[in-house]
Design goal:
- This protein starts with a helix and ends in a 5-residue tail after the last helix.
- Strand 15 (about 320-325), helix 12 and strand 16 form a beta-alpha-beta unit.
- It is of the alpha/beta class.
- The protein has helices at about 1-15, 35-40, 55-60, 85-95, 140-150, 165-175, 195-200, 200-215, 220-245, 245-255, 275-280, 330-340, 350-360, 365-370; strands spanning about 25, 45-50, 70, 80, 100, 105, 115, 135-140, 180, 185-190, 265, 285-290, 300, 305-310, 320-325, 345-350.
- The strands form four sheets. The chain has a six-stranded mixed sheet, sandwiched between helices. Strands 3-8-5-9 form a four-stranded mixed sheet.
- Helix 8 (about 200-215) runs antiparallel to helix 9 (about 220-245), helix 9 crosses helix 10 and helix 9 crosses helix 13 (about 350-360).
Length: about 375
């Protein structure tokens, strides 16, 4: 954390919005983090460094330190983009909303980036997955205080890393007003190295627990979003099976689903692209190229595979297109249908493969592996 916390601090202090307050909560670090933070002590409103019993308990305990009207939370590995706080303030003045959310840039471990626009997200999906992320989402103080000191306080031990999912579900479910920060630019950068992305099963099981807490009494809503959650869950569960069963057994089970002779093109250079490539390479399948509808990605590469425009598919024959996205499968299928591709082109979905395997093998083996510490 010592090598990233300064970047996070500077990203707040360098904002052009003047009326801001920075509070830094540290869990008693001994890796040089405290020394770095103290360099900015004259610009930090409050600094607390002490051993804690979890992030959320620390926030609840130190809530009295906060005096701002709009509250943002950012981890030591993440950082704000220039102009972020001014954009939030302008949106607040225009909309008087309760929750403000904007675009975010995912930073992979190799430094490459994925721009994630939240303009078109369906906020109802908050019930089963995270559609907004803390670094790019800010909330009115009184609303956030009510969540931390009322809803979360009594069940805080159930959430080590994914109380954010519980927060967004709760705010949406209770009718709070969300407003998109429409600036054409990202609000923050989110490193895909934090606990919510490296301890994926912990995060997923906590998200499921939050879903049951928020909508468990509404059977119709729960059935709908349980199915959607399972789709999200299975896209990660597939690699839990790989870990627990071993590669030989895993490949034997999933081999009938994969056409080993096909030439593959991946549609979608987002979060799941790497997993789709990993699955195909496990069976020695060749990925010719990736296509993505974002023009700024054309000509770039992902895992040494070139990214092209979807127009490249118009001349293709005898290929298999694997859609890597989870949330936009139907949209991509519609786009491909409208392109009138050659009849020899086959279209499959990474998420459908994962869901089929999940229905076949179930959750018990995964839950057992997670409880034994074999899955993170």
């Amino acid at each position: 954390m010592a090598n990233t916390v300064e970047r996070a601090i500077r990203s707040v202090l360098s904002q052009d919005y003047i009326n801001k307050e920075l509070i830094v909560l540290d869990g008693g670090s001994t890796d040089g983090t405290v020394e770095i933070i103290k360099k900015y002590s004259n610009q930090i409103a409050h600094f607390v460094s002490e051993p804690d019993d979890g992030l959320y308990k620390t926030i609840i305990h130190n809530w009295h330190l906060i005096s701002g009207d709009i509250i943002g939370e950012i981890g030591a590995d993440d950082w704000y983009c220039d102009g972020a706080l001014s954009a939030v303030a302008n949106t607040f003045e225009k909309t008087q909303a309760d929750v403000f959310y904007g675009d975010i840039i995912f930073i992979r471990p190799d430094g490459s980036q994925i721009y994630h626009s939240t303009n078109q997200v369906d906020l109802e999906n908050s019930y089963h997955c995270t559609v907004t992320l803390s670094p790019s989402t800010l909330v009115r103080k009184e609303i956030l205080a009510d969540f931390y000191r009322q809803q979360l306080k009594d069940c805080v031990d159930e959430f080590r890393i994914a109380a954010d999912a519980y927060l967004w579900m709760t705010l949406y479910h209770t009718g709070k007003k969300f407003s998109y920060i429409n600036t054409g630019k990202a609000i923050a950068n989110f490193s895909l190295t934090g606990v919510s992305t490296t301890q994926i099963f912990q995060s997923l099981y906590e998200t499921r627990q939050a879903m049951y807490r928020v909508i468990g009494s509404n059977k119709e809503l729960l059935v709908k979003h349980k199915k959607l959650f399972d789709k999200q869950f299975s896209a990660h569960a597939i690699w839990g099976y790989h870990t627990l069963l071993g590669e030989d057994s895993f490949c034997q089970i999933i081999r009938p689903i994969i056409d080993l002779q096909a030439r593959y093109v991946i549609f979608g250079a987002g979060n799941m692209c790497g997993n789709a490539i990993k699955l195909l390479r496990l069976f020695g399948c060749k990925v010719d190229y990736i296509v993505d509808s974002q023009p700024d990605l054309e000509g770039k590469s992902y895992d040494n595979i070139i990214i092209c425009s979807p127009d490249c598919l118009r001349l293709e024959q005898d290929i298999c297109i694997m859609i890597s996205s989870i949330d936009y499968v139907a949209d991509i299928q519609k786009q491909l249908l409208e392109m009138h591709l050659n009849q020899t082109v086959n279209v499959i979905s990474y998420s459908d493969i994962c869901l089929e395997l999940y229905h076949q093998l179930g959750d018990e083996i995964l839950k057992n592996g997670w409880e034994r510490g074999l899955l993170k």
